[in-house]
């Protein structure tokens, strides 16, 4: 069956200069929008258009008509927008007020996403260590690689004290955007822009730091990156720090959080305290690294379900040191465990 093409975006303005600019951006994005030159004419498609761009010239007329509230409405005008336009934006429930030409790249991204049509919600998985040295970053990288084998995937590194997902994967010499660049942007991060600018290999894009000193990314930057990654990738994996404001904010936005646990007395005690900080935020599962593990005993102590166990893998550290990454063979225990975990999370 041929998929139904997405409905066109809606532009509401009679300002010819503004309309010309928005149509130019639409053409660059591959979009053919519907145009309404009066407020009344926009109501026909108001509810169903994936994106509505309202010119500041017609915003007062629309406010008087009182169209039903909806997502995806943006007010657009030329630089020097009057304060009154922001009151109109609030009345219309607009998500943003954008000035041209300064916001043209961002509007281009919005229009491009409207062409792609609605996407299914991404599988979002956070991974953190129940204790130091549990191997959370390695497992996060394994999940990303396995996910990328069946479609685009994104791996966000939010742990400034970790080894770095790019180093574990052998991606550290790839060109692309890092956290430092993302934190300089303002406004909404576009899915296509993020997908195209990240260091990427074999379908897996990674967002981490450039070489040198690093500090935790700003929570707003992580929120924007997570949202954009979810719009542009079926699977998003986040390597989380064990504590801090970024982790506290991110776990509530993730569908699942996996805690990698060492089944030792100190490891289980630390994991129990770690899980206690997460229990009210999201769905938590344990990945236990070790041989001869009693899943029920671990689950009872840590107070979270064990979803996978795996023994330590010989040669793993050497493979990572050589730049081969954690999954140099798909038959490895790490690869099989990551595959099984992703399958279970997708059907949960």
Automatic annotation (TrEMBL):
By its UniProt entry, which Pfam families does this protein fall under? Rv3660c_N
Cite the GO molecular-function annotations of the record. Answer: ATP binding; ATP hydrolysis activity
**Where does the signal sequence lie?**
none
Q: What InterPro entries has UniProt attached to this entry? A: P-loop_NTPase (IPR027417), ParA/MinD_ATPase (IPR050625), Rv3660c (IPR022521), Rv3660c_N (IPR059050)
Ranges where the Rv3660c-like CheY-like N-terminal domain occurs: 12-118
Q: Which GO terms describe its biological process?
A: negative regulation of cell division
Query: What are the record's GO terms for cellular component?
Result: cytoplasmic side of plasma membrane; cytosol
Q: SUPFAM superfamilies in the record, alphabetically?
A: P-loop containing nucleoside triphosphate hydrolases (SSF52540)
Q: Which NCBIfam families match?
A: CpaE_hom_Actino
Please state what the protein is called: Septum site determining protein
The organism that produces this protein has a lineage beginning with: Bacteria, Bacillati, Actinomycetota, Actinomycetes, Propionibacteriales
């Amino acid at each position: 069956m041929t998929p139904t093409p997405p409905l066109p975006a809606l532009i509401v303005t009679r300002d010819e200069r503004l309309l010309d600019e928005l149509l130019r951006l639409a053409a660059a994005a591959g979009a053919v929008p519907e145009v309404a030159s009066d407020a009344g004419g926009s109501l026909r498609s108001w509810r169903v258009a994936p994106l509505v761009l309202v010119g500041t010239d017609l915003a007062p007329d629309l406010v008087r008509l009182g169209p039903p509230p909806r997502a995806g409405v943006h007010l657009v005008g030329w630089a020097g927008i009057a304060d009154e336009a922001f009151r109109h934006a609030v009345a219309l429930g607009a998500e943003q007020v954008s000035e041209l030409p300064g916001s043209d790249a961002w509007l281009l991204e919005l229009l491009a996403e409207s062409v792609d049509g609605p996407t299914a919600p991404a599988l979002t998985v956070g991974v953190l260590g129940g204790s130091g040295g549990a191997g959370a970053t390695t497992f996060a990288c394994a999940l990303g690689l396995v996910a990328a084998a069946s479609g685009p995937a994104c791996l966000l590194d939010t742990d400034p004290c970790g080894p770095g997902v790019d180093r574990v994967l052998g991606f550290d010499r790839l060109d692309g955007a890092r956290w430092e660049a993302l934190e300089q942007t303002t406004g909404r991060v576009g899915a296509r822009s993020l997908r195209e600018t990240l260091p990427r290999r074999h379908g897996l894009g990674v967002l981490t730091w450039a070489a040198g000193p690093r500090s935790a990314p700003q929570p707003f930057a992580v929120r924007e990156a997570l949202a954009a990654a979810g719009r542009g990738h079926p699977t998003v994996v986040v390597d989380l720090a064990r504590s801090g404001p970024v982790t506290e904010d991110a776990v509530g936005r993730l569908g699942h959080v996996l805690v990698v646990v060492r089944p030792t007395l100190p490891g289980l005690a630390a994991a129990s305290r770690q899980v206690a900080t997460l229990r009210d935020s999201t769905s938590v599962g344990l990945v236990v690294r070790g041989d001869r593990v009693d899943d029920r005993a671990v689950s009872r102590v840590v107070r979270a379900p064990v979803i996978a166990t795996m023994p330590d893998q010989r040669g793993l550290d050497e493979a990572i040191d050589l730049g081969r990454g954690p999954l140099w063979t798909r038959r490895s225990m790490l690869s099989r465990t990551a595959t099984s975990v992703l399958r279970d999370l997708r059907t949960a």
